[in-house]
Write a structure and sequence with these properties.
By secondary structure, the chain is mainly α. It has helices spanning 2-18, 28-49, 55-75, 90-108, 112-132, 140-145. The model has no long low-confidence stretch (mean pLDDT 90).
């Protein structure tokens, strides 16, 4: 999962670099969403590969949790024309808003197995699967990456 997060982060960086000329026309809401998810993506391999449970892990984990929550919350302001402005990817946003507090709570209460499972599910679902769907279907990052 750490490698997949790095690959996805690389795709985002390449896409944003290629689309830099369009950035001034991107709504601030979308830029904030992109910044928070990029933060979470950059922290994911670090969190998965380094030592766990120490002060640094807890601090970086707090930043990761806040970035994930902010990303999901901001996504509700980004809408398309389908289903009242929401798209299927918003289902993952709802799931993230519910799961992120659980991830934080399980860590704080030393429920390590549940914490680990919830983090893996979040990384796989809300980062990797959702991240994959940001590139096809004529979405902004996809247009930039494949231009």
């Amino acid at each position: 999962m750490a490698i997949a997060a790095l690959v996805l982060l690389g795709c985002v960086v390449i896409a944003v670099t290629k689309g830099a000329a369009d950035l001034p026309r991107v709504p601030a809401f979308v830029l904030l969403h992109l910044a928070t998810i990029t933060t979470a993506l950059a922290l994911t391999p670090v969190m998965l590969l380094r030592r766990r449970g120490d002060r640094t892990h807890r601090r970086l984990g707090t930043v990761w949790v806040l970035a994930m929550f902010a990303t999901a919350a901001l996504s509700f302001g980004i809408r398309t024309n389908q289903w009242g402005g929401f798209s299927p990817i918003h289902i993952l946003s709802v799931w993230t808003v519910i799961q992120v507090p659980i991830i934080w709570w399980t860590a704080r209460n030393h429920k390590i197995d549940r914490h680990r499972s919830a983090v893996r599910g979040m990384v796989f679902g809300a980062l990797l699967i959702a991240g994959f769907f940001t590139f096809p279907f004529d979405r902004m990052l996809g247009r930039w990456l494949f231009s």
